[in-house]
Amino acid sequence: MRVESCLVQIGNRKDVATGAVSYPVYYAATYGHPALGQSTGFDYARLANPTRKVLEEAIAELEGGDGGFACASGMAAIQTVAALFSSGDHVVLSHDLYGGTYRLFEQVLARVGVTASYVDASSVDAVLQALRPNTKALFIETPTNPLLQVADIAALAKVARDHGLLLIVDNTLMSPYLQRPLELGADIVIHSATKYLGGHNDVLAGLIVTKGQELTERVAYLHNAISAVLGPQDAWLLMRGMKTLAVRLDRQQENASRIARFLADHPLVEAVYFPDLPDHPGRAVHFRQAKGPGALLSFRVVDPALVEPVLRHVRLITFAESLGGVESLITYPAVQTHAEIPEAMRRAVGVDEKLLRLSVGIENVDDLIADLAQALERAAEEVG
Ligand SMILES: *Cc1c(COP(=O)(O)O)cnc(C)c1O
């Protein structure tokens, strides 16, 4: 089955007793044992819940992995995976990355002796130079959030293999519909399923997918031991959202491509970051490993004074954090999603006060363009 069919069929007739097309929400926290030493496969809900299990099997299949694990949020998924590391271990991460991931490594993991370096992962040389004798993993986003920098997953998988490291890919921006890092040699995929997979800005969730039996067992152990697991109602909501992932993303990408071109031609816009623009430096690598550009783009306005009035004047587009849902959202990374990253590091990467990030939804694209046009125009009038 192709990915679109797998998505739509999540949970369909998996409840064999009833043949339910939408898998039921099992709220039971504990399950009766048929006899001493026997189990139905469900004992206690932290370890396994039927609704969560259907979701976990679906994401494992979609990503081509051996194990799937549903967590309370994307950060809970990252924390669970980070528990693979011990005091004295070192991890190399993309320098342009989600602010919460940076905060977890710098404020939480650093205290227990796990150190981190941040590099431009679009350069294999930069990654190689950051390796130390105690490096245990590469943790990358591709494309990165918010600057859409592209890392070559297969090339970094080779670096990881040659040096005995784990390659962990945060695949939130692409979803398995567009990119499957495990097939390119990664060991672990992480999702903030709050974003494209859920798709409706109504559920907080995270997913982990692992490749290989030993690693799958280690992560299963940590998932239960740490237990930042996803509740059954949220697992159901997430599956319900995932059924339409392919059609949503098709429309979102189409809209995003049109908007990227509109912004690239706009006199008040200095730069647009989107993998499908002809001058995007990572374009060739991106389209070798992903089926589409995705629907997140960032742009830099010519004057930082334009930012506040643009955010005030958008009407259809909502000024809010997050991304990936059917509703278009505009974000100011420097003060919102990436505020945790120190100013010097943010600026060096390019996340400055002129940068806005747009998560493109499924509204009519002409309405979205008209909204951006009027907001930019009114902002320019105010700034003079
Ligand atoms: C949002 C996000 C996260 C964190 O996920 P939550 O579900 O908000 O905890 C991690 N990585 C990326 C790329 C994200 O966009």
From TrEMBL:
Transmembrane segments annotated in the record for this chain: none
GO molecular function terms attached to this record: carbon-sulfur lyase activity; pyridoxal phosphate binding
SUPFAM superfamilies: PLP-dependent transferases
Record's keyword annotation contains Transferase: no
An annotated GO BP: methionine biosynthetic process
InterPro entries: Cys/Met-Metab_PyrdxlP-dep_enz, Cys_met_metab_PP, PyrdxlP-dep_Trfase, PyrdxlP-dep_Trfase_major, PyrdxlP-dep_Trfase_small
Positions where N6-(pyridoxal phosphate)lysine occurs in the chain: K195
Domain of life: Bacteria
Annotated keywords: Pyridoxal phosphate
A Pfam family per the record: Cys_Met_Meta_PP
Required cofactor names: pyridoxal 5'-phosphate
GO (cellular component) term, any one: cytoplasm
Family that this chain belongs to: Belongs to the trans-sulfuration enzymes family.
Protein name in UniProt: Cystathionine gamma-synthase
Native source organism of the sequence: Calditerricola satsumensis
The organism's taxonomic lineage, starting at the top: Bacteria, Bacillati, Bacillota, Bacilli, Bacillales
